[in-house]
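Researcher: Let's try something more involved. This one mixes different molecule types, so please make sure each is placed in the same coordinate frame as the others.
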Amino acid sequence: MPALHEDDGVFTLDLGDDENRFSPDWLQAVNTSLDTVVEASGALVTTGHGKCYSNGLDLEWIVRHPEELPSYRTEVQELLARVLTLPVPTVAAVNGHAFGAGAMLAVAHDFRVMRADRGFFCFPEVDIDVPFTPGMAALIQHKLTPAAAIASMTTGRRFGGTQARELGLVDETAAEGAVASNAAELVRPLAGKNRDTLGTIKTTVFGATAALLRAAEPAAQP
Amino acid sequence: MPALHEDDGVFTLDLGDDENRFSPDWLQAVNTSLDTVVEASGALVTTGHGKCYSNGLDLEWIVRHPEELPSYRTEVQELLARVLTLPVPTVAAVNGHAFGAGAMLAVAHDFRVMRADRGFFCFPEVDIDVPFTPGMAALIQHKLTPAAAIASMTTGRRFGGTQARELGLVDETAAEGAVASNAAELVRPLAGKNRDTLGTIKTTVFGATAALLRAAEPAAQP
Amino acid sequence: MPALHEDDGVFTLDLGDDENRFSPDWLQAVNTSLDTVVEASGALVTTGHGKCYSNGLDLEWIVRHPEELPSYRTEVQELLARVLTLPVPTVAAVNGHAFGAGAMLAVAHDFRVMRADRGFFCFPEVDIDVPFTPGMAALIQHKLTPAAAIASMTTGRRFGGTQARELGLVDETAAEGAVASNAAELVRPLAGKNRDTLGTIKTTVFGATAALLRAAEPAAQP
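Model: All components are placed in one shared frame. Result:
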């Protein structure tokens, strides 16, 4: 389960040591941690430990609760919209694999630092026949260059850290063991920004995309 | 006239050995070829042979058929929208000059590989007093960085392959004779993607721009 | 006060030798100069001399005329929209500090050349608790990559010329004394473009953002 630690205004949210998929309990724990960070006007680092940052949707849970898929999707998109416009500085420390909605979560942060030598950043949607929702597609396009969006969204390609940096999927790479600490140093000077101002700025910049993420999905055809 | 060849799932559409302008017959032949590629769920490479990839609109034909200009423009923009959202992987192998709507056709593909040492990528619109339509402007802006869009759309500058690569007008350059083959290798691993999924992804990503390209032009003032 | 000089079709608008803030008189002088440049179908270089390009809003004047803030803001945003869509080639020669609306003015030009070794490009909005208006946020996002927009809009960071070039906030850097001349050489080949065509192109490319800059601000709540 996600766990939150603070070091002088910089909060590190450890997403877990497994695949760190978005189970309902995991989503609730993440949201509670975000409440704490916002309340404190801190800066946020998210990271995993082990092989994965996050592999995204909890497919096993979905299979067991098909009737709850619409509300689950709403919750996931709400988290992406919340992180996108969170009124504190945010950075994803991508310690390992970031797949699908896990990669989208990283993209929703202000910045991304990725381990250089292991782990893949990947949108497998095209290969698993799960197209992006309009909100998810808008999120990715709002954060990446057109070339990076196309190369990552239409190919299913797995990008190692160095390739991800070259394409601009992430801002920096770091050696094993330095990913979370470099990420923390990136936002440490930004901790304590006025959260009303920063929140307004992010909402102005990303408002249209956040609204799409929060829009009701059209009902499936009967 | 355009001709289509297949090699193990990768279809190469040869646009011709001349200026490869968009005559009505040329447009029909290209569309018929696209039907074949989509039907086969193949990957698409377009290229010319000789000095030109394509010089765009068939100005001689337009001069001879002024009354058909509106329907001609509709057909051209439909081709750009179709390539932009084609449900197979696409790459333009820019073997030589790509001017005006010829450059737009290249931009509509997922990727672009350009010959390094000869040929120019150019939007001459500002110099020939033919402004971009809203759909064409949206297409270019949806595929290039802001800096690349401005530098190419407002100056009429002719970019050689190396400059085009530096600015991000194209993704890669290649030596003479390797342009089409490098382009083919780029999409070969992507041939066979589920075309419904890829088509949905591209339509989600580029839907607004495709709609602008397909929108009726406002009627000219009497 | 701003002063305009011409050299063979290239007009250099000197924004002043002080902080070059946007006082009402300064705005009027700039607009009168723009009239001259457009009338002549010239190319435009803007620059300051001394430590600053422009530090933006005239805060002292605002404090003395609080009741005129709405009309002042309208004038400032009109200038940004006008420069964004000016029907002649434009380049900002950023000789020194460009802060806030001064940096936005630079961003509104087609191109930016910045002094490499001194001066900062900075959006201090997050630190002075003055969020971007929707039009200003749209302007910056329309001209910069997503990564550059986030790094500059949410951090208050001051970017020297070299960093600004790496991030794409500016297109080129130059040594002291070569900033304005390099900028002039950049647009000299473009002077004399048909201003109706170039104006239509820029209005098509940037129309939505110009409209946001020109939209009435929502009235403040009583």
